[in-house]
Amino acid sequence: MRLHICAVGRMRTGPERDLFDDYVLRAGRTGRALGLDPVTLQEVEDKKSGGPAAEAALLERALPQGALRIALDERGRLLSSPEFAQKIAGWRDAGRQDLAFVIGGADGIAPDLRGTADFSLSFGRMVWPHMLVRVMLAEQIYRAATILAGGPYHRS
Ligand SMILES: C[S@@+](CC[C@H](N)C(=O)[O-])C[C@H]1O[C@@H](n2cnc3c(N)ncnc32)[C@H](O)[C@@H]1O
């Protein structure tokens, strides 16, 4: 199963980029034996003038056809890390080819695009900067892979 992160804005070089790349690398290594392909990042332009509606049009184009859409949204469902791991395994076992995680820009994901999500995932009710959300998501994907592989990284 292919994992895509479709996100608004371009990540510059710096600490967030380093952390993100590290977790993506680790997730790729651990996920290989589990039928999880390396995470790919699709970035779309941050449309300061057009806002979330203009960004949604770009995100819509970046989303792989037929992908299961997971919106990152503070109003979404709260999951424990083992629950998140089981969700990923369930989608994989159901034969899903593509999972697309969608992260909005400064003003969030346009409601119309949010409405097309198959699942809405929250990292808590607080709002996090979107570049940090990428890092947190990459870490949780890596953690999920280690949980599914039975590795020692996750301790509950
Ligand atoms: C700065 S936030 C925008 C928040 C905005 N109030 C909204 O309505 O979504 C940018 C993006 O980061 C992600 N995000 C921020 N906090 C989050 C949280 N607690 N859980 C999940 N995703 C979050 C969402 O994808 C959001 O669109």
UniProtKB/TrEMBL annotation:
Alphabetically ordered keywords of this record: Cytoplasm, Methyltransferase, rRNA processing, S-adenosyl-L-methionine, Transferase
Protein's UniProt keywords contain GTP-binding: no
Enzyme Commission no: 2.1.1.177
Record carries keyword Cytoplasm: yes
Binding site for S-adenosyl-L-methionine: 72, 104, 123-128
GO molecular function, a single term: rRNA (pseudouridine-N3-)-methyltransferase activity
Family to which this protein belongs: Belongs to the RNA methyltransferase RlmH family.
Quaternary structure and partners: Homodimer.
NCBIfam families: PRK00103.2-2 (NF000988), PRK00103.2-3 (NF000989)
Function: Specifically methylates the pseudouridine at position 1915 (m3Psi1915) in 23S rRNA.
Stated name of the protein: Ribosomal RNA large subunit methyltransferase H
Name of the coding gene: rlmH
